[in-house]
UniProtKB/TrEMBL annotation:
Enzyme Commission (EC) number: 7.1.1.1
Domain NADP transhydrogenase beta-like: 10-457
GO CC aspect terms: plasma membrane
Name of the molecule in the record: NAD(P) transhydrogenase subunit beta
Membrane topology of this protein: Multi-pass membrane protein
Catalysed reaction, written as an equation: NAD(+) + NADPH + H(+)(in) = NADH + NADP(+) + H(+)(out)
Similarity-based family: Belongs to the PNT beta subunit family.
InterPro entries: DHS-like_NAD/FAD-binding_dom, NADH_DH_b, PNTB-like
Main location: membrane
């Protein structure tokens, strides 16, 4: 081993350590940003080492220049997306990242297999290639469908077309038959057939899944992406790629299990589909059946409360009102009001959506409370301020016989007073009425969250000014 190869291998080891350390730092919201930077630094190091390795291994070849150009184009595109994407579109962006990761891993395996297909291909290479292209192609199309559902280009309701299970089983059979063929006789054409079948299966798998399960789907596809990348690492014999993919796959799998538990649903039941209706028409409960409030009345309750618990939901993200909410909380805190945020694991459209949203508004991390931690505090709260959250606050979950039965919820209805900010009586992704809205302690403030929160801050200032 030359000195250059030794340095490169040590550099890959350092990159792997950065991946592990970065993932560890992401365990806490207080260190998550630092963890992202550490992981990004590790990946940047790995990319630089790969370009260097290719340049020294094949001097004079155009490969390093092509790779460097790809890194430059991808880096610029990523930076522009990160700066311009709205918080409401973050779940779609994550789904697109999953698609790109899975698709890229599959293409790497195809290119390497095509290079080796002229001669004998080992069992190890064939196995990892098949696993890579199947997982990668499924992730690619499945993530595109998920992004389409989140963006509204594909209906958020489950698409339960006739014969879908038969189609799915047929595609699985084609994949298995193609895999057996490849073990017997290497063939790029058969590999392409396997890829097409796997890509079609990704579409069939995600279409029947409703909007209610999107947080689970996103984390599951993220796990698929990591697994595909790890398989690509085995195909290329790249230790850094194997470690990076394995970490993403393992963490995504754990997160998927946590998301499913938070909804009291198994991953299998999520994949079967048919749950939830996505964005749909207004619920059956008439607006006349609820008690309305005004900005001034709500401001009086908030200004003279001792303890306020804020429950953010997707409606907060849709209105891009996180800064107005933070300003209102700061104003109340300045008056001595104890303000906390109650964070449900599946609030929003992706894992950690509310944490990311509030972090953008510089909400102090100690004010964020997870569901199990905050639920005992609701009976002690003078006001629970619900901003755009729906299914995660529905008391119907405590009863059997409905789509949210058994799902752990935030005990909002146990607060002394509940103020709900919503634009209308529209239902959530589960497609059922929220019984909280008709509760005797609940007051509805029908307005856009951004304008309502700004008006509440102005009214509180007038009261105390």
């Amino acid at each position: 081993m030359t000195a250059t190869e030794t340095v490169i291998r040590l550099g890959y080891l350092l990159a792997a350590v950065a991946f592990v350390l970065g993932l560890h730092l992401m365990n806490s919201p207080a260190t998550a940003r630092r963890g992202n930077l550490v992981s990004a630094g590790g990946m940047a190091l790995a990319v630089v080492l790969t370009v260097w390795h290719l340049a020294t291994d094949r001097p004079g070849a155009t490969g390093p220049l092509v790779l460097a150009a790809g890194v430059l184009v991808g880096g610029v595109a990523g930076a522009l997306l990160a700066r311009r994407v709205a918080m409401t579109a973050m779940p779609q962006l994550v789904s697109l990242f999953n698609a790109v990761g899975g698709g890229a891993a599959a293409l790497v395996a195809v290119a390497e297999y095509a290079r080796l297909a002229g001669g004998p291909v080992g069992v190890r290479t064939t196995l990892t290639t098949v696993l890579d292209v199947v997982i990668g192609a499924t992730t690619f199309t499945g993530s595109l469908v998920a992004a389409g559902k989140l963006q509204g280009w594909v209906t958020g309701s489950p698409v339960l077309f006739p014969g879908r299970r038969a189609v799915g089983l047929t595609l699985v059979a084609v994949v298995l038959a193609g895999a057996v063929w490849l073990f017997v006789a290497p063939s790029v054409a058969v590999l392409v057939v396997v890829i097409v079948a796997a890509a079609a299966f990704g579409v069939v798998m995600v279409l029947p899944i409703g909007g209610a399960d999107m947080p689970v789907v996103i984390s599951l596809l993220n796990a698929f992406t990591g697994t595909a990348v790890a398989m690509a690492g085995f195909v290329l014999d790249s230790t850094a790629l194997i470690i990076a993919g394995a970490l993403v796959g393992a963490s995504g799998t754990i997160l998927t299990k946590l998301m499913a538990d938070a909804m009291n649903r198994s991953v299998v039941s999520v994949l079967v589909g048919g749950f939830g209706t996505g964005d749909g028409p207004a619920a059956a409960v008439a607006a006349t059946a609820v008690r309305r409030t005004t900005v001034d009345d709500a401001a009086i309750q908030l200004a003279y409360a001792r303890k306020v618990i804020v429950v953010p939901g997707y409606g907060l993200a849709a209105a891009q009102a996180q800064h107005e909410l933070s300003a209102l909380a700061d104003l109340l805190g300045g008056r001595g009001v104890d303000v906390r945020y109650a964070i449900h694991p599946v609030a929003g459209r992706m894992p950690g959506h509310m944490n990311v949203l509030l972090a953008e508004a510089n909400v102090p991390y100690p004010m964020l409370r997870e569901m199990d931690e905050i639920n005992p505090e609701f009976p002690l709260a003078d006001v629970a301020l619900v901003v755009g959250a729906n299914d995660v606050t529905n008391p119907a979950a405590r009863r059997p016989g409905n789509p949210v039965s058994g799902m752990p919820i935030l005990d909002v209805d146990k607060a002394r007073s509940v103020i709900v900010i919503k634009r209308s009586m529209g239902h959530g992704y589960a497609g059922i009425d929220n019984e909280l809205y008709a509760g005797e302690r609940t007051s509805m403030l029908f307005a856009d969250a951004k304008s309502a929160l700004a008006d509440l801050s102005a009214a509180v200032k007038t009261l105390v000014g």
